[in-house]
Amino acid sequence: MRHGLVVMAWITASLMAGAPAWAGTVEGTVSLGPADLTIHSAMPNAYVGQLSAASMPAARAAAVDTTYGVAWIEDAPAGAAAAPPPARMDQLGQKFVPRILAIVAGQAVEFHNSDNVYHNIFSYSPPKKFDLGRYPKGKSRSVTFVKAGAVQVYCDIHSDMRADIIVAPSRLFAMIGPSGRFRIEEVGPGPHSVKVWLPSGVRTLSVQVPAQGVALVSSLAP
Predict the structure, then answer these.
(1) For site-directed labelling of 6, which of 21, 58, 103, 136 has its Cα 20 to 30 A away?
(2) Is 0.85 topped by the overall pTM?
(3) How far, in Å, CA of 45 to CA of 207, rounded?
């Protein structure tokens, strides 16, 4: 009987240890200026992306992007869990799809070429400098992003191609849509700094997160 009680106590303690600590939610709203709202205005070159006329509508649909920025908890400790599976950034119609990609530090990105032309993807950004060299349609090359920060990505062959990869320090991040709203869940209670990246610039917001419930933050200007 005593042995059974010990086992039950161990199971209970294990479950409690695996349960998430008290945490709240951060909901924010930021104003989007012209530089933010027009970032997806350029149409993809469907001829470059797909040779078949029948597949051109699909190419245009795939190029639709809904992310206009990224928000994350700046002072969140780096997660000890294994990095998520690789994210994917396609090259379609001489555009990067998605134009803005958010990942967590330690995660890899697969750069796939769906165009019928060569691309040469590179970045000189301090968090991650790389040059993938030229590669043709149907091929992919991967890069692992270890350091948090914003990484600007270009094509050495097509100077009008540009993408931004935002590497968050932890999984406590969220994408910002056209409404300017975002929601970050499971944030530990207490004062925190929320970093917001937009094409127009970076903003820092302060927030007091409750043990349970929602903390609201907003920014009407950079």
Answers:
(1) 21
(2) no
(3) 43
